[in-house]
Amino acid sequence: MPLSERIGSQLKRAEQALSGAKNAALRPSGLTAPQYAALFFLGESPGMSAAALARACAVTPPTMNTVLRNLQERGLIERTPHEWHRNILETRLTAEGEAALADADARAVRVERSLAAAFTEEERATLAELLGRCVDVLEAVRTDGA
Questions:
Q1: Of the candidates 46, 43, 38, which has an alpha carbon nearest to the alpha carbon of residue 65?
Q2: What is the mean pLDDT of residues 69-90?
Q3: Is the pLDDT of residue 146 over 60?
Q4: Contact between 76 and 100 (Cβ < 8 Å)
Q5: pLDDT digits 0-9 by tens, 33-59
Q6: 58 in the Ramachandran plot: left (φ > 0), alpha (ψ -120 to 50) or beta?
Q7: Are 33 and 18 spatial neighbours (Cβ–Cβ below 8 Å)?
Q8: d(CA 8, CA 138)
Q9: Phi then psi for 81, rounded to 5 degrees?
Q10: Which CATH code for domain 3-145?
Q11: Which comes out higher in pLDDT, residue 117 or 6?
């Protein structure tokens, strides 16, 4: 099968291009893409555990622990024991973390808006539907073990 017909390769190229653009946009904020993602999800759901954050950010638990340690050392997050489950640490943004997130998110949103501007509203809807179908097929293949 020629490379031009391999949808997986095209998806990977698009993902790498998006990741590269976001990393470049985030660089002035002093955050990596995984750090930004962690702050973003914590902004949406304060108190998430490291395990939940790892799942949300699509990274391994050891990677998330490194991300969280770095964010905590920079004073962007605080981690406290859960009220009932003392072996679970809840993670929340500090005021400095909220400011860092606001700066980084504005930068990431510019990348997303630039990408969205390349398509009409109808094309964006179609692309989202097609990508959703890709996810459904690939998750079914993974589940089936094919």
A1: 38
A2: 85
A3: no
A4: yes
A5: 999 999 999 999 998 888 999 999 989
A6: left
A7: no
A8: 10
A9: -65, 140
A10: 1.10.10.10
A11: 117
pLDDT at residue 120 greater than cutoff 70: yes
Contact call for residues 56 and 48 (beta carbons, < 8 A): yes
**Separation CA 21–CA 15 (nearest Å):** 10
Instruction: Using the structure block, give the residue that is written with the tokens 């589940």.
Output: 143
Long-range pairs of 15-24 with CB within 8 A, sequence gap ≥ 24 = 18/111, 18/115, 21/111, 21/114, 21/115, 22/108, 22/111
C-alpha 144/C-alpha 57 separation (Å) is: 24
CB 69 within 8 A of CB 139: no
40, two tokens: 């973003």
What is the model's pTM?
Answer: 0.82
For range 9-26, the mean pLDDT? 94
Contact 12, 105 (CB under 8 A): no
Domain ranges of the chain: 3-145
pLDDT mean over 7-28: 94
